[in-house]
Amino acid sequence: METIKNAGNYVADKVQGATAATSKEANKEVAKDNNAGVGTRLQAAGDAISDKASETKHDASAETNKQKATH
């Protein structure tokens, strides 16, 4: 039963990590956009940093759950 739970958590973490990666890339593009205001660009840069941290956290959690599910 625990293996099924870990497998489900692995999938959820992979999805959340991928979502954060997509958001990070979108925010990076806004931060580079010369037509966007300075405040908007700074906010997007900060959001990209936050998204990268979230992506890293979820990827690490996914790997942990993958290991638990296979052992």
Distance between the termini: 13 Å
Q: Class by helix and strand content?
A: mainly alpha
Helicity range of the residues? Answer: over 70%
Low-pLDDT segments: none
Query: How much strand content do the residues show?
Result: under 5%
Query: How would you state the average pLDDT, rounded?
Result: 96
Order of helices and strands: HH
What's the β-strand tally?
0
| General shape | rod-shaped
- Tally of individual helices: 2
As a whole number of angstroms, the C-alpha radius of gyration is: 16 Å
Largest sheet: none
Structure description:
- The chain is 90% helix and 0% strand.
- The protein has 71 residues and is mainly alpha-helical.
What does the secondary structure layout of this molecule look like, with pairings?
Layout: H1 2-32, H2 38-70
